[in-house]
Amino acid sequence: MTESNSQNNQRALKTIYIIRHGETDLNKRGIVQGRGMNTDLNETGRMQGEAFYQMYKNVPFDKLYTSTLKRTHQTVQHFIDDGIPWIQYAGLDELAWGVFEGQESTEDTRSAFRAMMKSWKDGDLQLKFDQGESPLDVKERQLEILENLIEKNDDKTILICMHGRAMRLFLCLLTDEPLYNMDKFPHQNTTLYKVEYDGTRFTIVEFNNTDHLKNLQTKKKSEQD
Questions:
Q1: Is 11 marked as binding a ligand?
Q2: For labelling alongside 101, which of 19, 107, 138, 150 has CA 20 to 30 A away?
Q3: What are the CA-CA distances from residue 179 to residues 7, 28, 126, 187, 195 (Å)?
Q4: Max Cα separation, the chain?
Q5: Average pLDDT, the chain
Q6: What is the pTM of this model?
Q7: What is the CATH number of the domain that holds 184?
Q8: Is the distance from CB of 18 to CB of 160 less than 8 angstroms?
Q9: How buried is 48 (Cβ within 10 angstroms: 0-12 exposed, 13-18 middle, 19+ buried)?
Q10: Is 212 an active-site residue?
Q11: DSSP state of 151
Q12: Number of structural domains in the chain
């Protein structure tokens, strides 16, 4: 066996597909929905989930993880219907934005969020909105997911559907990136991060991949023309 083949086999110890849920009406309207908002996908969100399924339905997933919120369940419903073993983890829920969840966007709320994002970027990761969670709170509950990924199962290929801010924090956790760099991981609805685990470290091999949405975007443009 060549060194290259040996390295490839080692890298393939685990492959994890991490996606954000599809669009909801609150996403479309720019309204914050955190852990406390159990919203449904809208039509676009369902189409995004369908598009992801059509591109990745032949991947031999051993396990499917979602948050406890139904917008993640609905995004991967086709995989659930295919009989892939499915586990819901509260650790994958979105960060709780507290009193701002479900509130219409105003200049005051936008200002509050800008200030909080700056504080987090400056390293004040314990800060949170009233009744909400901090990045450190989310990291604490995500550590259980990390333990399940690397210590408590022999699954080779796993699909995870979760939420935007929580996904950014989870990718920091997997790659040993400081949490204050969470915004280096951009996302949109159903964006994919494909991650490989070699037994020691996680490596992102597909970054913010939205190839599955290209036909959907073409279709929407055609309908608008």
A1: no
A2: 19
A3: 29, 27, 11, 16, 18
A4: 62
A5: 91
A6: 0.91
A7: 3.40.50.1240
A8: yes
A9: buried
A10: no
A11: T
A12: 1
Of 70, 27, 30, 78, nearest to 52 (Cα)? Answer: 78
Active site residue 94: yes
Instruction: Determine the residue type at 187.
Output: H
Considering the candidates 94, 101, 133, 196, report the single residue annotated as catalytic. 94
Instruction: Confirm whether residue 144 is marked as ligand binding.
Output: no
Is 23 annotated as a binding-site member? yes
148 is in an annotated binding site: no
Q: Which of 21, 73, 163, 187 is catalytic?
A: 21
Is 25 flagged in the annotation as binding?
yes
Evaluate whether residue 4 is within a structural domain: no
Residue 102 lies in a domain: yes
CA 61, distance to chain mean position in Å, is 17
Report the distance separating Cα 154 and Cα 216, nearest Å.
35
The pLDDT tens digits for 55-95 are 999 999 999 999 999 999 999 999 999 999 999 999 999 99
CB 149 within 8 A of CB 16: yes
What residues make up the domain containing 134?
10-224
| Any domain includes 5 | no
Is 21 assigned a ligand-binding role in the annotation? Answer: yes
Helix ranges (H only) for the chain are 3-11, 25-29, 43-56, 70-75, 77-81, 107-121, 135-150, 164-175, 214-224
- 3-class state of residue 224 by DSSP: helix
pLDDT greater than 70 at residue 4: no
CA gap 92, 166 in Å, rounded: 7
- The residues near 140 (Cβ < 8 Å, ≥ 6 apart) are none
Q: Which residue has the tokens 């909801």?
A: 24
- Listed in sequence order, the residues at least 6 apart from 136 whose beta carbon sits closer than 8 Å to its beta carbon are 125, 126, 179
The residues near 57 (Cβ < 8 Å, ≥ 6 apart) are: 78, 79, 82
